[in-house]
Amino acid sequence: MKYIFIHGLGQGPDSWNKTVSCMREQEEIQCLNVFAFKEGSEISYRKVYKAFSTYCESIKTEFGLCGLSLGAVIALNYVVEHPGRVKSLVLIGGQCVMPKGLLRLQNMIFRLMPNGIFKKMGVGKRELIQLTKSMMALDFKEDLDKVDCRTLIVCGEKDRANRGAAEMMAEKIHGARIEILEGCGHEVNVEAPEKLAEILEAFYEEK
């Protein structure tokens, strides 16, 4: 069994390092770099998602998806479009309907951030803003009943922007369960890696 971890906007694959280091089956976990899927200077959600889908189709073993924020959107998108393909799904701080106001605010913050921060992520400021704009029309609310694998929803107690969506997805996805991490904000993989690792291991051990 393989587990694919997908980071969020403003993160890179190394954002999972502390969480993975606390888990026993580290060799089965692959932390993808979402921005490595971009082609050329133009970037959009559709291009990133298409490349991610191609990657998943190349996997010959059973696998589960675990995504935070943008990564959660990509993981949910893939599961609803490929029934029977994914064995487990973990959505952390995710949304099924993109909050346009929040995305616009995020873009305003990105514009104020120094370029050096974006280089560390492997994507330029303009590209990240372009990617965020391309996500605004995404809406998977009516597709939640298509999720056919074991599902865990995780959200930080202080992640007010995403907690309502987490609770709604946990209610709408058949058999899904939810874990609210006390004292945490949005980036639970950075803020509470040990606790997240504990929750993930318990979920993965349930067959």
Polypeptide structure, described:
This protein is an alpha/beta fold and 207 residues long. Helices cover 43% and strands 15% of the residues. It has nine helices and six strands. Strands 2-1-3-4-5-6 form a six-stranded parallel β-sheet, with helices on both faces. Helix 4 runs antiparallel to helix 6. The longest helix is centred in the first third of the chain and has 13 residues. The radius of gyration is 16 Å and the shape is globular. It starts with a strand and ends with a helix.
Judging from the principal axes of the Cα atoms, what is the shape? globular
**Largest sheet descriptor:** 6 strands, parallel
> What's the pLDDT, averaged over the residues?
90
Report Rg.
16 Å
State the separation between the terminal residues, measured CA to CA: 12 Å
Query: Percent of residues in beta strands?
Result: 15-25%
Q: Roughly what percent helix?
A: 40-55%
Low-confidence parts, pLDDT < 50 over ≥5 residues? none
Query: What's the count of strands?
Result: 6
- The H/E string reads EHEHEHEHHHEHEHH
- Spatial order of strands in the largest sheet: 2-1-3-4-5-6
The number of helices is 9
What class would the helix/strand composition place it in? alpha/beta
GO molecular function: hydrolase activity
Protein name: Alpha/beta hydrolase
Keywords: Hydrolase
InterPro entries: AB_hydrolase_1 (IPR000073), AB_hydrolase_fold (IPR029058)
